[in-house]
Batch of 2 targets.
Target 1
Amino acid sequence: MADNKLIELLADGEFHSGEEVGALLGVSRTAVWKQVKKLESLGLALESKKGRGYRVVDGLSLLSADAIRSALPAGVSESLPVLDIFQVVDSTNTVAAANAPGVPGYRYLCLAEQQTAGRGRRGRVWQSPFGRNVYLSLVWQFSSGAAALEGLSLSIGVAVVRALRDAGAGEAQLKWPNDVLYHGKKIAGILLEMQGDPAGICQVIIGVGVNLDLRGASTAEIGQPWNDLYSVVGKVDRNRFVALLVTHLINVLEEFSRSGFAQLREEWGALDAYRGQEVAIHLGEQMLIGCAQGVDESGGLKVDIDGSQRVFRGGEISLRSMG
Ligand code: BTN
């Protein structure tokens, strides 16, 4: 694993000499080189210059639990007993599912600098390069079973858009059920997983990935048009953005726990990128064409097909703009 102290030293984007790095790590010049190579294996853009040393091109805004907590409103911070930051994990959702049972009320939040097996919806991989984006999982407990969670995944989409808009991406929108788009290209994704009793007390693991800065990342494998916040507003402080996101997630979860999706439906509708557009709905092998008409009170997608209205819910439905 790459050395944390070294990552923290080089995060400022300035050159640091081999002597300085060696002294920090307590190792020889040759060992310094090996440590720097390990950073390259994380996908970081490193530059080494004779006489000047090493630097991470553009620097890094590293995650810090203290910085996130100090940017959170007091009530929100107090409602989170644990906030873990990891350097590299397979998936923050997997880590959250494993760690939440040890936390009072299952109220567990974690983030990672990198995921080696980030999961997207419908079996996709979520590209998770080191140190530039947000990979977050928040566990939330509900007491009235899975049936009461209709519309939850759409509601989380509203929270993510609120955070992006507060961060300056005023034209962020939603594509049913909860893809977050900026100018039609995906900027954030949401993956909800459930554990516990589907008929009683259950916990939802809310996984959110936000593309903050994909410069230099290998984006060829993303497999769909993408955007990042950097392209919209330039550099953002990741810890401040995480604090915004967590605040909106918790506000929306509280709103949802009180009154379900009903309260958030209108806002979802105002953010709907596809309303009134001709769309294709893929149901397994079948494809239907119709006109998107927004969502119903439980988050189902309403589509006019040949003059009659149909409602689609979850599962293998995907939606693609034809226009
Ligand atoms: C999608 O396909 O749109 C959902 C992407 C969800 C990605 C996030 S990143 C944090 C959390 N951990 C994961 O493995 N996936 C989610």
Target 2
Amino acid sequence: MKRCSKIIGTGGYLPETVRTNDDISKLVDTNDEWIFERTGIKTRRIAGPNESAASMSEIAARQAIKAAGIEAGEIDLIIVATGTPDRVYPSTACMLQHRLEIQNCVSFDIQAACSGSIFALSIADQYIKSGAADKVLVVGAELCSRLVDWTDRGTCILFGDGAGAVLLDSSDEFGILSTHIHSDGAFEDLLYCPNPQVATEENKAEKGFITMKGNEVFKVAVNTLGRIVDETLSANSLEKSDIDWLVPHQANTRIIAATARKLKMSMDQVILTLENQGNTSSASVLLALNEGVRDGRIERGQLILLEAFGAGFTWGSALIKY
Ligand code: ACO
């Protein structure tokens, strides 16, 4: 068997504060019934005033390191996917490296919005497969609550905060079978978050909030995720029935159900965290993976399909023999 990237540990962190649909209905004109029916979300977690992408990453990463049974100092590479870094620079990955007291490894952030964890896994896999790294820590961490306009009912109902982590090690046994990542920058207007401090004259009136044409994004997401399922199965000469678990990005139950239908999978084969976490952007796939591994649903040797879609547009998948 050729060298591949095996998952040796997972971790996750969710902030303590729970914000319910009823809480949000006191801020904007909405209600629990509408939100749950249209999105599948009931509650989401909101980070405390002293929490950050780096602090949440540290907790998730330490859990993954412990589960893997390795020392932090053995890690060769740290990749953090985030759209809410603590600072413009240094990267959140460098800050995490320092928090983990690792003197000598390579650390960098990547930004692919909600597809960030899949993009980071893909990069990690290339490093491991090429022999450039053995142990790679991948983290997705997001403070979506601070990018949300809490007066916009089209977006504030959707997002939550959290961090997920996975530790990969080189293996000749099994692991990531393939990753497939894509981008198309033509859809910027449908989903973006301005950065007012560095805006051009033309854009400087824009506020730094997530801006989304939800129903248009929805349609593209459903079609695109259907295509990525076909691409992934065909690249591995597999049938739909070979997949044991779908671990999707948690944006909307209706989008996830469409992908499950495409795979002819029952929703019992889908790891769903959306109801109590909302959309945690680049953290969501890793948080769901962590949940499925820790509660024993995902077992060694099973085939799991991870997928995500987000701003950019970006989208991707990872097929893993766990
Ligand atoms: N409460 C009550 N009514 C609402 C709310 C709300 N929170 N939001 C919108 N509505 C109303 C609208 O005003 C509209 O009313 P109208 O018919 O009188 O005009 C009606 O509900 C339907 O609005 P839509 O926007 O068409 O609602 P939709 O069913 O599409 O649901 C949602 C909106 C949940 C945002 C959905 O479109 C969605 O999930 N989109 C995809 C999000 C996504 O996947 N994003 C990518 C990842 S995020 C990232 O990368 C950062």
